[in-house]
Design goal:
The chain contains 14 helices and eight strands. It has 520 residues and is mostly helical. Among the domains are: 44 residues; 219 residues, Hypothetical protein af1432 (Orthogonal Bundle); 73 residues, Cation efflux protein, cytoplasmic domain (Alpha-Beta Plaits), CATH 3.30.70.1350. It has a three-stranded antiparallel β-sheet with strand order 1-3-2, with helices on one face. It is flat and about 185 Å long.
Amino acid sequence: MSVLMIVGLSLVGLLAGFAIAYFAGRRLAAEKISEAERQARRVLEDAEREAKALKKEKLLELKEEWQRQRQQVEQELATKRNRLQVLERELKSREEALQQKLELVTRKEKQFHELEQQLAQRQQELEQRLAQAQELVQEQIRRLEAIAGIGRDQAKQLLMEQLLDEARNEAAQLIRQIREEARLTAEREARNIIVQAIQRTAADHSVETTVSVVQLPSEEMKGRIIGREGRNIRAFEAATGVDLIIDDTPEAVVISGFDPFRREVARIALERLVADGRIHPARIEEVVEKTRRELEEQLLLIGQEAAAELGIHNLHPALLRYVGKMKYRSSYGQNLLAHSIEVAHLAGIMAAELRLDARLAKRAGLLHDIGKCVDQNSDAPHALLGYELAKKYNEHPIVCNAIGAHHEDIPMESPIAALVQAADAISGARPGARRETLESYVRRLEQLEALAQSFEGVAKTYAMQAGREIRVIVEPERIDDRRAEELARELAARIEAEMQYPGQVKVTVVREVRKTAVAR
């Protein structure tokens, strides 16, 4: 029983607790709701107050902005009003100026009309006077024609011919004076440059020969060289392409040939055969071939030494080999390599004096005769062969042009080409540099005199100074002074075009007038 009571009391206590808790929760919730309502009213009131303050603030800002914009607009209107006033004053002043100009133009127009009337009147008077003057001139011309006995056209023709003759004489005198002044100035400057170049270039003055002499240890060696029935000497000449001369000269054999390379191969091969002592056709062919290969291998070294002497770099190996071949070539007895090195020095010195590229001038001077070493059957001049060879190995265009133009086979495109041509002439024309046979020398003099004699009015011709000067004596009745000067220029041009000669040829035309009278 007591347990049931306890359980019942517990249930009643729990129910009472639940009831109390329920009513306490409702009361607490009601209080929270009322508190939230109060807070909400406070928030709304605060928001209304803030909105009113913000509205008032914004109204004030808008009012201030409106006032500011109003002031700005008023200022802009005032500025525009001032500008309009200024423009109005300017327009008014311009209108006044235009009015003044209009009045001035009106006055000028009136004066122009008056002047026009005066000019028309004067023109009429001048036309009348011109008609009178023409009548007087015609009358005067008729009187002059009657007095002179010739017509007007004839007198005009005579006057024109006289004026033309006077103009030609004056022009010829002026041209002669200008040419003389230019020649004196150019000769003086060129002479200074050339003299400096020659003084600074030391070169051998001897010419190459066409023979070489090989010393023998004894006279018996001549018989061994000749061989049985001459087979050794025939084999040697066939292998080398030279002539072997064995005469009464003691202990010496002469090698003759116009090709210096072949002659050098023959000399070295013969010296080796003599030193070895074994001389027979098979041994001769072996030694000659070996000697030829060794000399060809030395060509590149010779070209490199020549380029190094001149300070020339980056030459193609093929061009260096051609330069080496120059050592074994000659022109009129002058060694081609020595001549080319001399031309390179001269061209470089003259280029430096003229503020040109001395490096290119030396390069062109060294390679200018390289076409003479081209071993091919071609009818082209050696200058053009060298030009094509330089182009093939990508030489500088100025160098290529100087090579091709040093004998005027192509037009010159740079001053360096002219310097190379001048250096070539200096090197070939100096005393002792070259030689020519008596037959070619006489033939050149005869051709020079015949060329001068082919001109009309020429009485006599004389080749002087070994063909370096031609004196032409003309008939004074047929050739006047002006024509004599033209004859000298024409003859010089034909000599340049038709003849081959070392150096230069001076043309002198002599016109002598002699008048004789006898007093009795």
